[in-house]
Amino acid sequence: MLAYPQFNPVIFSIGPLHLRWYGMMYVFGIVSGWLLGRYRASKPWNKFTPKLMDDFITWAILGVVLGGRLGYCLFYNTSFYFANPMKIFAVWEGGMSFHGGCLGVLFAIWLFGRANNMSFPEVGDFISPLVPPGLFFGRIGNFINAELWGRYTDLPWAMPFPGAGGLPRHPSQLYEAALEGLALFIIVWWYSAKPRPKGCVGALFLLGYGVFRFLVEFAREPDAQLGFVALNWMSMGQILCVPMIVFGAGYIWWAYRSSSAAGR
After folding, report:
1. 3-state secondary structure of 27
2. 200 lies in a domain?
3. Could you tell me one molecular function GO term of this UniProt entry (predicted)?
4. Burial 109-122 (b: 16+ CB within 10 A, else e)
5. How does pLDDT run across 150-178, given as a tens digit for each residue?
6. Which of 71, 83, 213, 261 could potentially form a cystine with 97 if both were Cys, beta carbons 3.0 to 4.6 Å apart?
7. DSSP state of 76
8. How many structural domains comprise the chain?
9. Is the alpha carbon torsion for 25, 28, 34, 36 positive or negative?
10. Predicted pLDDT of residue 13
11. CA distance 20 to 12
């Protein structure tokens, strides 16, 4: 068993203001996506330009924050927020959902495409490879905060997280950082380096994230207020990943089949 590093979640304080590592991880994720996007936009094979990337980052931030917060309130703690609607705005108390943030960004992609005469698949294919680094930093933020820890295990790298009953647990945040962040970035970035049927890069991102998150959920402790929500073993995270997996795989199959038929 490994000892959990005792991180101070606050980097520094100035009076009542606190700069926290978790907030900085959002900044790192947004900046990394923006820089990678400007790099991709400098290539001649897409409609995006560095200026368009600068414009889109504002839309993306709104999609992530608003979608992530509303998604958490609706998917993970509905009854509490219906009873306490003003708490929806208390983002400093924690509570963000990737699936909600994903829906928020998808809506931002649709609006941005309409405003700039670009199709939804075109914008989605460009943006998808930029997302995994943000997921990596977000999961590192969860680890520093000692939240969203894993289930009990006797594996040698298990850790007793603060507030988790002193039991050795999977460092599931690090599993997610490695799979949803690093591995997914390598896969989607490599796949997007060559021409693909329209929409397939975005579909691969949805498929890859859905598969990785579904698998890691077997090592992650279900949310205390929900527990298992289906079949006595499926968590809410897994339920929300199923449509991502089905749509991602189905769309790729359809796109390549249609492309092949068109080629004949």
Report:
1. helix
2. no
3. transferase activity
4. beebbeeeebebbb
5. 999 999 999 999 989 899 999 999 999 99
6. 71
7. T
8. 1
9. negative
10. 87
11. 7
